[in-house]
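I am still getting used to backbone structure tokens and would like to learn alongside you. Would you supply a protein for us yourself, any chain you care to pick? Start from the sequence, derive the backbone structure tokens from it, and show both lines together. Go ahead whenever you are ready, and we will take it from there.
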Amino acid sequence: MNTAADGRLTGRLHGLLQRTGRQYAAGHDRPLGGYLAAMAGFAAYTTAWATAVRRRGRPLPDRPEPWDVVLTSVATFRLSRLLTKASVTSPLRAPFTRYVAPEGPAELHEEAQSEDAKHTVGELATCPFCMSVWVASTLTAGQLLWPRATRTAMGALAALAGADTLQLAYSALIEKTTGE
């Protein structure tokens, strides 16, 4: 093999990727390499789950049951918010984020650290929409591998989401009736 030619090809490819990234970013900080790494990580993560499900030998359902979709949606919402916004889980995010201010009841506003390696993880760790992809995949795999335990955990998360809704409604009602 010609290592000099391989080196030139690698250099050209690297230059092309850098130009593409600069053109795409239009002067903004867009860590495309980190996003690509996150996508590769997610692909590996879901492949590992799929392999575990296949090895377990459980048949896949023809389609998800509507109740499971609703339960998974509510549980995904609550767990994603818990992981990305809750004060109590801030130690998990702290290596990749910086605290900005409180944001809503028992939630925080944090921003991703600007260091390249930490930026993408920080964005994932503070974005409930981004985290929900990972959470929904995990809960779906859990339903296929350990359906009873997963549905029990999802039921608890759904109850927590319901309790949060009632707490917020109660606070709004008190504020409306007392003017405080």
